[in-house]
Design goal:
61% of the residues lie in helices and 12% in strands. It is of the alpha+beta class. It folds into 2 domains: 1-179; 186-330, Heat Shock Protein 90 (2-Layer Sandwich). Helix 2 packs antiparallel against helix 3 and helix 4 (190-200) crosses helix 6 (228-242). Residues 30-36, 39-48 and 288-292 have low confidence and may be disordered.
Amino acid sequence: MKKSSIYRMVLIFLILSFFFLHLVVGSETSYSKLQHGPVPSRSLNVPTGGSDQASFLQTIGFYLFWMAQLFIIVFIVALFLSRRNNLLKQELLQRKNMEQRLQQYASELKHSNEMKDLFADILRHDLLNPAGVIRGYTEHLLEIETDIKKLQYLQSISRSNKKLIDLIEEAASFTKLDTLGSIPLEKKDIGCIIDNVIESMRMQISEKNAKVSFFRSGPYPANANNLMEQVFVNFLSNALKYGPLNGNIDINVIDAGDSWKVCFVDEGDGIPDEFKEAIFERFRRVEKGAIKGSGLGLAIAKKIVELHSGQLGVTDNPMGKGSVFWATFLKA
């Protein structure tokens, strides 16, 4: 509210109050005449008698007192309205700034998602294809080469290329999952999914001469997506990779009320308490070389479990050396 408007409002209130008070005083004088006869006039004409002057001063004091009260009230109201108006202007300005920030954030988020999609496409095509060509030629050379020294070089190339392919595939998978807000779920048996994972990894299990035991007591219906299989592949792959030769890996499905808790128990070196949460973050690994890899596998597993409205974690093996990686999935 502008100052000129405040002054105008104060003036109007003062004029109206003056006439109002004049009417009140006139009414009191008329009432006094009817009750007690004529009384000295309280008009604003300056009287000549002593009693008239006292009455005149009393009337003026009466006017001034109530005008002062009204002025204070009007001033306070005008000040309050002015401050309220300033607050509303500030709030409106803040809302406009917030809307602009939200629009800018939405634009940046859209651009970021587009860049993620582009990055995933580059990983899948521009990087994965050359790595596949290297793998094909390396496998062919390994079959025909007889020189021991050259075979060692080729095997080193093959191992490094396989790590590169795994890293590219994991990065592409995580980029794709990171843009998903939800996934379609349908009724699936967790037991059948675990059986398929074990069967698909028979070669890796044989290479470590490991014993994988799945204690299945019946069907485990859950609301699941095919992505669930990647979680179990990651758990079993880690148990084989970081476990000892001739080790044991136990898989259990526990009834946890409204969900199933799937546990993979290994005999590896275990995870220190300070890293039990960090290993599920992107590119976070246990230090000092205890855990090697891209740092994306468990992050991908975590994202998949979250898309299933479940939880996951790791604890120490209660039976001795090793860890227990677990994940929960809602029952169907």
